[in-house]
Amino acid sequence: MGTVGMLKAAGIGLGDEVIVPAYGNADLADEVVLAGALPVFADIDPATYCLDATAVDAVATARTAAVIVVHRFGRPAELAQLGELGRRRGLLVLEHGESSAPYGEVARRQAHAKYLDGRLTGVRTPEPARGHTYQEYVVRVPGNGRPDRDAFARAIRGKGVDCRVPVKTPVHRLPEFRRNVVLPETERAADETLALPIQGSMTRRELQRLVSACNALGGLLQPAF
């Protein structure tokens, strides 16, 4: 059953609010609208890129009926905190999972991630976590007066690294969902994140080439969250 069906089956529709992340997944906001409810955006945890329980609690109202939690880039959301919030407030908590990969592929990506974690400089590498499958290896490229994310991406693409910006525009900035809300971590993540290649089929030489291309730009500061 899809998100629309699950919301309708739970009796959620006209007059209800459903909290969703604005960092990606415009399709979720669309599905909330199709169910007849109003999508409300909450900020993310800067380490997980998933909904932050404190931020969800802050935007929940008497009209809030559900929260849709998205597991991001292969890292599980903090379901314990969000589940407890749902129980306390009487909210339906739905999970929006990512496509799974064979165990061998996941194991190779995890090994690649460990290699990159120990060798990349000038970018903030993803925070390791139990169960992280590294569907995408997402780093931060803060500006700090030095090469920003977009300039960094152009430079390493020029060296043959196939990187991509995972979320170009947060959902609350799209014309059809524009909201006058303050989501600083969502905005910062959209400005700073860059997905580097981590396919299980990559060779050690390809990983070394990736590291060399990134580290050649060197010296970016890594501010704390």
Structure, explained:
- Belongs to the DegT/DnrJ/EryC1 family. L-glutamine:2-deoxy-scyllo-inosose/scyllo-inosose aminotransferase subfamily.
- It comes from Streptomyces solicavernae.
- GO terms for molecular function: transaminase activity.
- Its cofactor is pyridoxal 5'-phosphate.
- Keywords: Aminotransferase, Pyridoxal phosphate, Transferase.
- The structure is a single chain.
- This protein is an alpha/beta fold and 225 residues long.
- It has 2 domains: 3-96, Type I PLP-dependent aspartate aminotransferase-like (Major domain) (Aspartate Aminotransferase, domain 2), CATH 3.40.640.10; 103-215, Alpha-Beta Complex (Aspartate Aminotransferase, domain 1), CATH 3.90.1150.
- The chain is built from 8 helices and 6 strands; from the N terminus they run H-E-H-E-H-E-H-E-H-E-H-H-E-H.
- The protein has helices spanning 3-9, 26-34, 53-59, 79-89, 103-119, 149-157, 184-192, 204-215, and strands at residues 17-21, 38-42, 64-70, 92-96, 137-140, 193-196.
- A 4-stranded parallel beta sheet has the order 2-1-3-4, sandwiched between helices. Strands 5-6 form a two-stranded antiparallel sheet.
- The longest helix is centred in the middle third of the chain and has 17 residues, at 103-119.
- It is elongated, with a radius of gyration of 19 Å.
